[in-house]
Amino acid sequence: MSDIIYTKVDEAPELASASFLPIIQKFAGAAGVSVGTKDISLAGRILAAFPEHLSPDQQQSDDLAELGRLVKTAEANVIKLPNISASVPQLVGAIKELQSQGFALPDYPEAPQTDDEKAARAKYDAIKGSAVNPVLREGNSDRRAAKAVKSFAQANPHRMGDWTADSKTHVSSMPGNDFFSNETSATLAEATGAKIVLETATGERVLKEGLEYPAGTVVDATFMSAAALQDFLAAEIEKTREQGILFSLHLKATMMKVSDPILFGHAVRAYLAPVFDKHGDEMAALGVNPNSGLGDLLARVKDNAAIIADIDACMAARPPMYMVDSDKGITNLHVSSDVIIDASMPALIRAGGKGWGPDGKEADANCVIPDNCYAPVYDETISFFKENGKLNPATAGTVQNIGLMAQKAEEYGSHPTTFEIPEAGTVKMILDDGTVLHQHEVQAGDIWRSSSARKAPIEDWINLAISRQKVEGCRAIFWLDENRAHDAQLIAYVKPVLEAKGLAGTFEIMSPRAATRASLETITSGADTIAITGNVLRDYLTDLFPILELATSAKMLSIVKLMNGGGLFETGAGGSAPKHVQQLVGENHLRWDSLGEFCALGESLIFLADARGNEKARVLGKAVETATQGILDNDRSPSRKVGEPDNRDSHYWFARYWAEALAAQSEDADLAAHFAPVAEALASNEAQILSELAAVQGPGAELGGYYRTDNAKTAAVMRPSATLNGIIGQTG
How far apart are alpha carbons 67 and 39 in whole angstroms? Predict the structure, then answer.
């Protein structure tokens, strides 16, 4: 195993790796540090799942499973880039691309009938959604803006949209019968197995068996009423029309891979209710599944003039929709993975509560977030800015995050215990001794789910929060609601630990809504705070606050201190990655910012030095920090516009600043001597290198694929400077 594992992923982060990783490997090699790769891309995971369908030269190892074993050891040192958490349309698109490249994969079975189809569906379902993170995150999250990044953002504040008190933008959530209101939770006194069954008038159906929970595990169960959801959506569509604003739906159909595509489908059906009422059987015969989105629906009915006419008439009578791409007519309801709440809501809030309408103009919006578990965070944020005006990034403090996520803690959507109920009855979670831990009366179509959080990760999370607060010395808040069943169980863990350590007065415990306002008040005053949260809220907040503070969450420092001693270093969000790829293919300009990778690399090298005693790695890591500062101080990050410096230019500058820092340091004479000529060559050839990089921009780029690009074509696109390539070769 290499000293450091750099993950192979998808889209813009992977394209950037084609340029940046050779630099890392060459520089690290000079210090005796090996940097290898493991493929956790969507295409790679698909190929690994179907070896029996592939020729020997096409077969691929299951790198995710291998990394899953590695992160449970003290030797783990993994730099994880953001990967695709695939929705069904993305999964189907990747399968079709791989088939076109000669891989004899089975189709994704929409309605599996045969044993082979059911087996293929099970494998594909294990790949979709947030299938990677629960495997690799064997530790809790410490996520924050690096000091250099925060200082740069304050000195160079990004544009914020203006908020006004009379803005009509607001959040709408269900009045009841949602996941929040129906939740029950219990902490297990002893280790036990369990099963989940549905009892109906016709008998008992086992939904899931073989569950195992150690003592001290917090186990939750809840459901959302489909009927209540339908009533809510119908009412909100009408309210939005009356208010004259945009209708927008905000979910996370990637992480919540079972529940949220179903919620999304309900919204598609509600928006086109008259069409489904009139043509439902005919559309079903054409293979229409509202869960797949409006885009798929329109593609299936495009040759039926009567249905198309009724869709046009219906949409004309509905409120205008929040648009993903107004120019291309792509709506909020086209594809479930196009509007992801943790990216879409902060972007709308940063823009002053404005979304793009079908007319290409900005407008206020009804932000529909059906479930109340975390909708209050966004509702309170909007209320705060209506009252106080936009945040000033030049003076704002920062919100750090300590997130509970180890060992699949709170994995609501990714965990295989979420079900769409097939018929009315009672869902029960039954322990091995026959005890009914949870039960709910449900109707056909309701969405029932369970999740758990184990004792060891919870205690590790609390102690990590204590350590972080001690370092920072700032306000620290546990975002826990005593009136929510699950949170009450966590509070029962948190309070005794704080009291035993004499820290009860140092930390606060607040509901998410109250904590949101307290945190916004704190950073508005210029002070800092730490948000100590569960898994889903960790995911949401580490986009919300960075987008407000820094304009992006891709620049965050994300350290996962693995519970068995290893380290996982994450590099930020990938939500805008598809648009970046589109621009590269169209204009040969990649605006992806690798600052997150720079930060992760420095932390990984210093962690390696601490773990292995490799002092050369420490020198490399310190020099990475200097190079990162150089990127910020000299504004060497990528521009958004073709013809201006892009991701490849930033990698040249990073390599140059890194080499210069290594040549200038006095801790390791061998490294200084090795990199002095490299630094000189990079500096003296600046004009030639930048000219070669600039020359390729404008015409489109050919990658040989989207989900699985051609390695040679990608390398040619991302490493177009022969001069730079020759100099980097001298470092090995």
Answer: 10
